[in-house]
Amino acid sequence: MRNLRTFSQEFKRQVVEELMSGESHPAQLCRRHNISPSLLYHWKKQYSLGKFNNEPIEEAALKDSIEKLERLVGRLTLENEFLKKGLQHNLNQSRRNGNSSANGDVSSAVSGKDAK
To answer: CA geometry: angle at 29 spanning 2 and 33, to 5°?
Structure first.
């Protein structure tokens, strides 16, 4: 079984800064430090977010924020669609049972628009 290695934040920061400076190619760094390319790029992403006691790169911080907001919009869209379907189902059940809607207009209730 392979032993897990741990690297200090200082080491990770030095490797990523060498990569970003262009002094060495990624393949050279991976061979020299015996690390995988995926680990190197993972460190680079963490570095850009400021995880190694460095200032976050503004562009990366904004990109991370955009990704979080996109996930939130997606989740809220799914919840919204679920609630619309539930409301539609509930209104249809009420009509089948002979109960009338307080609004009287199913499509406006589902779409959120005022009934006219």
So the answer is: 35
